[in-house]
Amino acid sequence: MNQQRQQQRVPSPTGARRRASRRGARLLAVGLALLLACTRPADDDPAPAEPGEETPTAAAEQSEGQTENPAEEALDAYEQYLGALTLALGGADPDDALDEHATGSGLETAREQLRANEADGLIATGTLQPSIDASQVTVDGDEATLTDCILNDLAQVRADNPDEIVEPASGNRQPLTVTLTRAGDAWKASRTTGPALRGPVPEGESCAPPALEQEVLDQYEAYWDTFYAAGDPGNEQPANPEDPALTGTEIDPQLGDTRAFLTRLRDAGQVLRGRPDTSATILGVLDYDQLAVLTDCVLTVEGAGIYDATTGQLVESADPGTRTLLTTEMRPADGSWKVSNSRVEEAECERSSE
Fold it and tell me: How far does CA 276 lie from the centroid of its chain?
């Protein structure tokens, strides 16, 4: 998601259904230490070093304690922290699960969540799935900071009866900012900032991983391009509701609404011109990456309106500079994200670039 997330309410999806059961168990990708062993023939002694040449032993001693890639090590420690937190929320001994991977306020924040669950007689099943890579970790000496868009796959169940689900897993994306501190060779989560792991996504606290965000926004722009291309095919032809390209960017019910609108234009011998200026922001990615909710302050451009396809005469104009707040829902279908619903909100809006 755009790193400058708008603090707006994530609207309830139109016609969305909450899953009664989660998808198959997901394994948290926790980095494992790779053990490298070097061998040489037992009866061969190492050749003496030339003057000024550093022996392998000396090089190893010199590099001992030095980090080759601190961002990778901090990321690995963060993923292990998520795994430890998941184990503790699932009922494991929190001292065993957390002390090794968290410290300071990071450890206390985790224990606050554990105390809240214990007070309600709950434990959690499922995972917290990271989506970050080392390039998104900032390291400054012995401190590393990252902001991850985790997928929350935790369900809350009764501690004394784990088959009783009190709160199903939502599969929603949530931002989590973690500071890790290095002491010796170990990185530990020393400070965490993020939404509660229970309950609905709070206002303004959903997100999208960068690659997913770009994919969704690209398809959103393609939706507008395709809609206006079908609205004005050229060569004095009226709008074409049967343009096959429409199915590449829309699904029902939005596809049905688009075709109904273009059919009215076609039957009247008219075209739609003046693609608006669009610049959407993703409010949230929900339901196991099956729903993206976007907001956009759409700007009407000069010359926008409905025209006679043959004469080019303006039939109905739109005031240039008009801003319209749209909420758009997109879902994956046939290998790409497509608009499933778009609605006008009765509220004024400002563009983030203004």
Answer: 27
52-73 CB burial, b ≥16 within 10 A, e <16: eeeeeeeeeeeeeeeeeebbeb
> Residue by residue, what is the 3-state secondary structure of 234-255?
ECCECCCCCCHHHHHCECCCHH
Q: Any alpha helices (H) in the chain, and if so which ranges?
A: 56-63, 70-89, 94-98, 104-119, 210-231, 254-267
Which residue stretches of 199-335 are H helix?
210-231, 254-267
Of 161 and 66, the structure prediction assigns the larger pLDDT to 161
| CA–CA separation, 17 and 221 (whole Å) | 26
Kindly tell me if the per-residue pLDDT of 188 is higher than 50.
Answer: yes
Give CA–CA dist 52/47, Å, rounded: 14
Asked, colleague to colleague, whether 68-203 and 211-344 share their fold, the answer is: yes
CATH topology assigned to domain 68-203:
Nuclear Transport Factor 2; Chain: A, (3.10.450)
- CB-based contacts of 134, cutoff 8 Å, min separation 6: 69, 71, 72, 75
- Helical pair 254-267 and 210-231, crossing angle rounded to 10 deg: 20
CATH C-level class of 211-344: alpha beta
pLDDT at 53: 47
Predicted model pTM: 0.79
Q: What mean pLDDT value characterizes the chain?
A: 84
Position with higher pLDDT, 36 vs 150? 150
Q: Which pLDDT score, from 0 to 100, does residue 94 have?
A: 74
Q: Are the C-beta atoms of 309 and 35 separated by less than 8 Å? A: no
- In the predicted model, is pLDDT for residue 68 greater than 90? no
Q: Could you tell me what percent of the chain has a pLDDT over 90?
A: 73
